[in-house]
Amino acid sequence: MENTDIANLFSTIADLLEISGDNPFRIRSYRNGARTIEGLPYSLISVVERDEAGLEEIPGIGKGLHEKIVEILKTGKCSLYDELLKKLPPTLLDLLDIPGLGPKKIKVLYEGAGIKTMDALEKAAKEGRLRAFPGMGEKSEANILLSIEAVRKRSGRSNISKALAKAEALVGYIKGIPGVTRAIHAGSLRRWKETIGDIDILVACADALEVMEKFVTHPEVERVLAKGETKSSALFANHLQVDVRVIDEKSFGAALQYFTGSREHNVALRLRAKKRGLKISEYGVFSEKDGSRVAGKEEADIYKAIGLPCIVPQLREGRGEIEAAESMKLPDLIQPNQIRGDLHMHTTWSDGRDSIEEMAEEAMKRGYEYIAITDHSRAVGIAHGLNEERLLKQMEEIDRVNDRIRKTASPFTLLKGSEVDIMADGTLDLDHSVLEKLDFVIGAIHSGFTMTEKEMTDRIIKGISTGLINVIAHPTGRLINRREPYAVNLKKVFDAAKEHGTAMEINSHPYRLDLKDIHCRQAVESGLYVSIATDSHNRKQMENIIYGINTAQRGWVEAESVINTKKPGDLREFLKRG
DNA sequence: GCCGTTTTCGGCCCGACTGTTTTCAGTCG
Questions:
Q1: Do the beta carbons of residue A421 and residue A447 sit within 8 Å?
Q2: I want to staple A157 with a disulfide (CB 3.0 to 4.6 A). Which of A195, A228, A346, A396 is the partner?
Q3: Do A262 and A318 contact (CB within 8 A), yes or no?
Q4: Neighbours of A288 (CB within 10 A)
């Protein structure tokens, strides 16, 4: 039972309690608990093993959730969950995915007409049987049918890179509408979350109705969900929902803060405001006494009004950032200009598209001081992975390129590296004698993803224990929305990595982001170094570094934990092996 | 179910939009 499993269980319990009409605040407690657990930088198992009482030190976990966590960890079951399932069929949870349909209506439909599946709901809507229920009419039936269709086609949350591209295009479009003075995307996208449910765009303008009209008639709009004076929503291709809100200049900062979220972060801020006799809304910070405006125009002023330094969007997840801000212990987050080089990339020697020199040129354009060339090893046959012989030849080629660069009086350096496969038995794919000649070795898993957790963990630890691996590439092997991570005990991997001076990669490809945010935090809190690298297969992909940096920021990573912020000499010192 | 510089009970963030309503409940973020 990992934290994620317990968090998912609590989240499901919250949904079931909601449908059963339970106390909304009890429901919120389970939701809060789930979020908190998901974001913890350590495993609950370790807490319970050490001292059960430690659970209640975690904010949001009280007596009730404590007992349930212990029950789940000890028995693998949760009696509350089992009881709820006796009363409510789990298929009702699917119905919560239908926009416009919430727990109250689902309960009524289930109890009144025995509707418990998406198919049954569709049938009832088509037959016009839903309009018999209070608050439902023909229009509700039509909307439910449209929404069911959308849910069936939907592929889940969008990858951040897709959402960012769409958001930037739409912000450009809106800025082109006459009278618009400001437009910016907010929401989880501004927090750089790895997947995005919908895009929020805030607009300041002279004529709100004009903006709303232009937005809902955008040529790519597939369906308008709502259109009002200050808020409109529309579905775009790939079922990406976009919400546009028009905001007064004097409230813009408050709205930006509010719509950037997360919800948990905002709830905590509002609670804090309330204790100080203030009220925060998307319109500003107001005195509860006389309703006078205290702040609103700039985002930072919202935090200032409640006695906090401004917290960057990447940290606003309700994972202890407010407490850290309060005690002036916010992390000094890694910044893009602190990255001195990229330590994972491929060239035409294996499956990359560009040559060693082309990659070097691009890196120099980016202002880097070094990069590591890390082509695949022979096990990745499909990528023309290098054997020892070809790797030795490539090293000679890199020496030649380095010589040519040195003659231009550039301080730029190429490091000779390899992304060597850690084989199923934990041995490395290339002779140690050759790997020892390299400046930089990345160890990676590219096969045998279906191993058990123990097998995979042992495999990686055995690789690390060779003492030859500087960095573990994409440590969980996941592809966002495409492939689940392989089973691995990261805690044990981190321990072994610490012992052998191995760093963890934050792979910056937007479909990897591996380590992910919370794992980054676990890694640096375990005292590990990370390498923020792009795994580029062509020049252009080097720009993906921004996704890795933001993932690191979401994981509270500071520059001192990132090996590629080191000066070339310091990096070489760090890379020296045992 | 959680929590406490108005504390162990009685609160718990705030507002817009829709569809069905003659004043509002449900949903969403």
A1: yes
A2: A195
A3: yes
A4: 12
User: CA–C1' span, A358 to B19, in Å?
Assistant: 60
What pLDDT, in 10s, does the model give residues A154-165? 667 889 999 999
Q: Is residue A30 exposed (0-12), middle (13-18) or buried (19+ Cβ within 10 Å)?
A: buried
Give the tokens for residue A420.
């060597």
Outline where A79-137 has alpha helix (H): 79-87, 92-95, 103-113, 118-126
Per-residue model confidence as pLDDT tens digits over A408-443: 989 999 999 999 999 999 999 999 999 999 999 999
Query: Mean pLDDT over all residues of chain A?
Result: 92
Nucleotides of B under 7 A from a protein CB: 1-3, 6, 11-21, 25-29
Nearest-CA residue to the C1' of B14? A281
A277: left (phi over 0), alpha (psi -120 to 50) or beta: left
Distance of CA A254 to the CA centre of its chain: 24
| pLDDT for position A158 | 87
Report which residue is nearest nucleotide B4 when distances run from CA to C1'.
A275
Token reading at A137: 């009419």
Pull the structure tokens for residue A256.
């930006």
Angle at A460 between CA A455 and CA A463, to 5 degrees: 125
The CA–C1' separation of A12 and B4, in angstroms, is 29
Question: A462: closest CA among A417, A492, A486, A491?
Answer: A492
pLDDT at position A578: 52
Q: Which CATH architecture has domain A336-575?
A: Alpha-Beta Barrel (3.20)
A524-560 pLDDT, tens digit per residue, is 999 999 999 999 999 999 999 999 999 999 999 999 9
| CATH superfamily entry for domain A3-154 | DNA polymerase beta, N-terminal domain-like (1.10.150.110)
Q: What is the pLDDT of residues A3-60, one digit of tens each?
A: 888 988 999 999 999 999 888 889 989 988 888 887 777 788 888 888 877 787 888 8
pLDDT tops 80 at residue A394: yes
Torsion of CA A81, A84, A85, A89, to 10 degrees: -140
In this model, does residue A404 exceed pLDDT 80? Answer: yes
In this predicted structure, which of A44-58, A393-407, A446-460 has the lowest mean pLDDT? A44-58
CATH level 3 topology of A158-246: Beta Polymerase; domain 2 (3.30.460)
Domain ranges in chain A are: 3-154, 158-246, 251-326, 336-575
Distance A141 CA to B22 C1' (A): 23
Residue nearest to nucleotide B21 (CA to C1'): A135
- Find all residues with CB under 8 Å of A377, minimum gap 6, and list them: A385, A386, A387, A391, A418, A419, A420, A421, A428, A429, A430
Separation between the CA of A288 and the C1’ of B13 (whole angstroms): 14
Q: Determine the pLDDT at residue A439.
A: 96
By C-alpha to C1' distance, B25 is nearest to: A135
Estimate in Å the CA A318 to C1' B12 gap, whole number.
Answer: 17
The pLDDT tens digits for A256-268 are 999 998 988 998 8
For residue A382, the Cα-to-chain-centroid distance in whole angstroms is: 30
| CATH for the stretch A251-326 | 3.30.210.10
